[in-house]
Amino acid sequence: MAGRRSYASWLKFAVLTVFLVLFIAPFVFLLLNSFKENNAITSNPMALPAGLDFANYKVAIDKMGYLTAFWNTLAITTASVLLISLFAAMTAHYFVRNPTRGNQYTFLIMVASMIIPFQAIMIPLVKIYGSLGMLNNKGSLIYMYLGFGSSLAVFIYHGFVKSIPAELEEAAMIDGCTRTQTFFRIVFPVLTPTTATIAILNVLWIWNDFLLPSLILVNPEQRTLPLSTYNFYGTYTVDYGPLMAGLVLTILPIIVVYLFGQKYIIQGVMQGSIK
Amino acid sequence: MIAEKGAWNRLRTRLLFTGPTLLAFLTVMIVPFAYGIYLTFTNWDGIATTHTLVGWRNYGEVFRDRVFWKSFGLTLKYVLFSVVLINGIAFLLAYALTRGLRGQSVFRAGFFVPNLVGGIVLGFIWQFIFSKVLVYVGTKADIPILGASWLADPDKAFWSLVIVTVWQYAGYMMVIFIAGLMNVPGDILEAASIDGARGWTTLRKMILPLMVPSFIVTIFLSLQRCFMVYDVNLSLTKGGPFKSTEFVSMHVYEKAFLSRDYGVGQAEAFVLFLLVAAITLLQVYFSKKLEVEA
């Protein structure tokens, strides 16, 4: 019995391993070919590279404006995520502690709005912000991320704020804290695990987003990583080596973060889905 | 309820706590959404500063736009296969990876990896896999089905989009299923096994009914994401070959921003929103009826 069981679990382990290898294989081929010359890639895309040749990477960093795109993406993602977390937590807190009819309806409208896909909004969005002269500006993009991201964030925070006992805040206010101080000293620290969840979900979305920035940011100097990858691919289709290197460079930052924080990232996705 | 003294203080707190969020939400979501509905009744071309009201004409155009409906039908087929495969594979993975297998956290982390990367990049990676790596394997090992690039054939290009989508989202939905499976109470499974329920019966009669809430979430998310797919569509096939894999999101984009037919484009976007909202809400409504209490 014990032998049969371990045999079955060994089989399951083997099947899962094969499946995982197939799952990861595209990334492995990408990495291998990023070190090869175009001829070597086309003659045998499965062969190992002759050596660690970073020539393709030099071309890619140069031609796709990698560093600029990296800093743009980092700035936009960081600013948007900070603003979404802070403002959504404040709003959710206010809604929970002041459950007037108006606030409850506003909350319901925010929840319901999550069903509206971006494609239903993009055309008027471009028209409105275009006529205000607010396109091609990182600040506008960050503001839009706050608008698009706040519904889900308020929704998730709302569920967790409800579990904080109001007595905790009343005690702080009796001791002389203002409402704002209470929020920043008591409530926001207690919400840290939720903030981590929201930050993770939003980083995964904003870092990789393509359609919205492609409509807002037109100048090459403003481009984010997904945009510069797309443009690089469009203008540089003949030579596979630099293209592969460019893709590796685009993936690299988030993979590095994942290697250190994968436990938290997976937990964040779990928490975000339960609510 | 916590309240400050005086109307001015109350207003200040309200503005501070809800002002930024509500202003952004209102001006980025609600106003464009409402203005978009208005735009569907105009003939705006994207450049002119003026436009005139044309009544229901744009909606008439939408129903006559054969390409739109063809592309909607194609998207529907794509959504159907993708959603079923994503959820099936994700559930099997989650089920296999919540039973104390050796190294299961490594497996979980590995299957999640495609979700770290945006659709544009994933599409480009697979474009290389389909057009170079698989063709190489096909010619060397003499496998006729891989002999030519899948992306050059309309039918196979469709399936390559399904494959990439399933690969992209299976790991994400797996994580949601794992969260659900970990909440299935151990004592009722123990009770079932004492009563003689074996693996398959336990799965079908106990676990699946208790997992309905997770399925509601994963099906909702996969439906919405697949219907609105744009990135992977753009970078993997660009709608080709010969516009044969142009999904509805890409069609709306082209109608508005490339053909400069904003009124009709927005009307199509709005019709699409209504259809997708109806489908996802019906799914949630009917799945809720399957929910059971543990």
Automatic annotation (TrEMBL), chain A:
Ranges of residues in domain ABC transmembrane type-1: 70-261
PROSITE patterns found in the cross-reference section: ABC_TM1
Location of the protein in the cell: Cell membrane
Membrane-crossing segments per the record: 12-32, 69-95, 107-130, 142-161, 182-207, 240-261
Organism (species): Cohnella xylanilytica
Pfam families: BPD_transp_1
Predominant location: membrane
Membrane disposition: Multi-pass membrane protein
Descriptive protein name: Carbohydrate ABC transporter permease
GO term, biological process aspect, one: transmembrane transport
GO cellular component: a single term: plasma membrane
Keywords, sorted A to Z: Cell membrane, Membrane, Transmembrane, Transmembrane helix, Transport
Family, as annotated: Belongs to the binding-protein-dependent transport system permease family.
Highest taxon, organism lineage: Bacteria
TrEMBL record, chain B:
InterPro entries: ABC_transporter_permease, MetI-like, MetI-like_sf
PROSITE patterns attached to this UniProt entry: ABC_TM1 (PS50928)
TM spans (from-to): 21-41, 78-97, 109-129, 157-185, 206-230, 269-286
A Pfam family recorded for this sequence: BPD_transp_1
Record key words, sorted: Cell membrane, Membrane, Transmembrane, Transmembrane helix, Transport
Highest taxon, organism lineage: Bacteria
Compartments, record wording: Cell membrane
Any single GO CC term annotated in Swiss-Prot or TrEMBL for this entry: plasma membrane
Membrane topology, record value: Multi-pass membrane protein
Residue ranges annotated for the ABC transmembrane type-1 domain, each copy included: 72-283
GO biological process, one term: transmembrane transport
Family statement: Belongs to the binding-protein-dependent transport system permease family.
Protein name: Sugar ABC transporter permease
Taxonomic source organism: Cohnella xylanilytica
